[in-house]
Amino acid sequence: MIAGETADILNICINQNNQRKGYGSLLLSYLYKELKNRLIEEVFLEVRESNQSAISFYLNQGFKEISIRKNYYKPNSNKLSS
């Protein structure tokens, strides 16, 4: 989602069977090129605090932690209900 000179990454998913094979890095590289073409200067994203593999990935991709939203994610909010 683009707003002015910033962009927010809302969702990136790599099938679990294909993780740790470089696809996430390729996807972000493509995204960075597209955003640079649109003159975007900053990119933000949010990651559930318990998702340590995603946090590690994004830190390795050059992202920096700028804040933690306490109680932002509800317990079990990633589960579907009927």
Plain-language structure description:
It is a single chain. With 82 residues, this protein is an alpha+beta fold. The protein has helices at residues 23-37, 52-60, and strands at residues 2-3, 6-9, 42-45. Strands 1-2-3 form a three-stranded mixed beta sheet, with no helix packed on it. The chain is globular and about 35 Å long.
Question: Layout of SSEs?
Answer:
Layout: E1 2-3, E2 6-9, H1 23-37, E3 42-45, H2 52-60
Give me a quick take on this structure:
This protein is of the alpha+beta class.
Number of helices: 2
In terms of structural class, how would the helical and strand content be classed?
Answer: alpha+beta
Q: Please count the beta strands (DSSP E, at least 2 residues each).
A: 3
Estimated radius of gyration: 14 Å
**Proportion of helical residues:** 25-40%
Q: Could you tell me the strand content as a percent range?
A: 5-15%
Span between N and C termini? 29 Å
Average the pLDDT over all residues and give the rounded result.
Answer: 88
Assembly of the depicted chains: single chain
Series of secondary-structure elements, N-terminal to C-terminal:
EEHEH
Strand order of the largest sheet: 1-2-3
What gross morphology would you assign?
globular
Q: Runs with pLDDT <50, length 5+?
A: none
Please give the largest β-sheet.
Answer: 3 strands, mixed
